[in-house]
């Protein structure tokens, strides 16, 4: 069973992605095409947002640390994303390796209590830390305009963040066809980490 190192968003659902960040999805799809044409048994893992990159910083770009005074909010802050402790990603992935239910399928890591908006994430941090942050909303047009004149890595990051927090690319579809499964339903015995528990590491 081959599990390509994709994780993140499912590239099969990102054909509309913004340039230049789209190249990462296109390249992953080329690998998938080769896997499938060679009839290699496989499982694709869509792990969504790794907590270490998105949770302590409340989804702020260019830092991994919690904000102290203010937090930038993408749009109205109500678009849902999915946040996963990296150890839980590993636990679900290991279970898939020899599970016939996961053969030649895409497995989404979408445990219900970790489907959260940015506002919900901020509220959890404020409750735990006892600090109220100033919220600075960023309209989508302003956010996309910030891509101009920046380096390639930043342009890719802005594109991905736009899809995540304005478009809702992780949650704006239902898992339903015969080639998709949801990990927490397949493996309900895994006690995954909730994000308020994860945040306690940063107090």
What do these coordinates show?
The chain contains eight helices and eight strands, in the order αββαββαββαβααβαα. It has 203 residues and is of the alpha/beta class. The strands form three sheets. It has a three-stranded parallel sheet with strand order 1-5-8. It has a three-stranded mixed sheet with strand order 2-4-6. The chain has one domain (11-202): Alpha-Beta Complex (UDP-galactose 4-epimerase, domain 1). The model has no long low-confidence stretch (mean pLDDT 96).
Number of domains: 1
Number of helices: 8
Sheet/helix structural class: alpha/beta
Q: Give the overall form.
A: globular
Helical content class: 25-40%
Oligomer state of the chains in this structure: single chain
User: Strand tally, please?
Assistant: 8
The ordered string of helix (H) and strand (E) elements is HEEHEEHEEHEHHEHH
Radius of gyration, Cα only, in angstroms? 17 Å
CATH topology: UDP-galactose 4-epimerase, domain 1
Mean pLDDT: 96
**Adjacency order of strands in the biggest sheet:** 1-5-8
Strand residues, percent: 15-25%
| Level-2 CATH architecture | Alpha-Beta Complex
Terminal residue distance: 40 Å
Note poorly predicted spans. none
**Biggest sheet descriptor:** 3 strands, parallel
| Name of the CATH homologous superfamily | UDP-galactose 4-epimerase, domain 1
Which CATH first-tier class would you pick? Answer: Alpha Beta
Organism: Aegilops tauschii subsp. strangulata (Goatgrass)
Pfam families: NmrA
InterPro entries: NAD(P)-bd_dom_sf, NmrA-like, NmrA-type/Isoflavone_red_sf
Domain NmrA-like: 1-199
